[in-house]
Amino acid sequence: MEKSNFFVINVVDNYVKEVSGNWWLVFLNGLVAIALGLSFIAWPEEALKIFAYFVGIIIILFGLQYIRLSFKVKGIKNKYERVKENIKSKFE
């Protein structure tokens, strides 16, 4: 059986696809940070209220993200078990 040199490349490709798929979240965070900074400069007192809402929304979004990631982790475990079984079956 010939050893494939493409396995490492496939792992890196999958990682890059996964990470780069969320570029818009990073961009959106940058826009929100700029808007929040401008509101603090323009309206310092009212900005505290905006900041409180912003923190509340961010906490909710983090919670939703953790829930989404928990399902991905569960899926990764299942895929890993299948790959492990495939490897075992090839060597038995």
Assign an overall shape.
elongated
Low-confidence stretches: none
Report the helical percentage.
Answer: over 70%
The helix tally amounts to: 3
Mean pLDDT: 81
Integer tally of domains? 1
What is the succession of H and E elements?
A: HHH
Give the structural class.
mainly alpha
Strand content: under 5%
Largest sheet: none
Radius of gyration using CA atoms only: 22 Å
Span between N and C termini?
14 Å
Number of strands: 0
Describe this structure in words.
This protein is mainly alpha-helical and 92 residues long. It has one domain (7-91). Helix content is 89%, strand content 0%. It contains 3 helices and no strands. It has helices spanning 7-20, 23-42, 44-91. α2 (23-42) packs antiparallel against α3 (44-91). The radius of gyration is 22 Å and the shape is elongated. The relative contact order is 0.04. The model has no long low-confidence stretch (mean pLDDT 81).
Supply database-style keywords.
92 residues; mainly alpha; 3 helices
How would you summarize this macromolecular structure in one to three sentences?
By secondary structure, the protein is mostly helical. The protein contains 3 helices and no strands. It has one domain.
Topology:
Layout: H1 7-20, H2 23-42, H3 44-91
Helix pairs in contact: 2-3
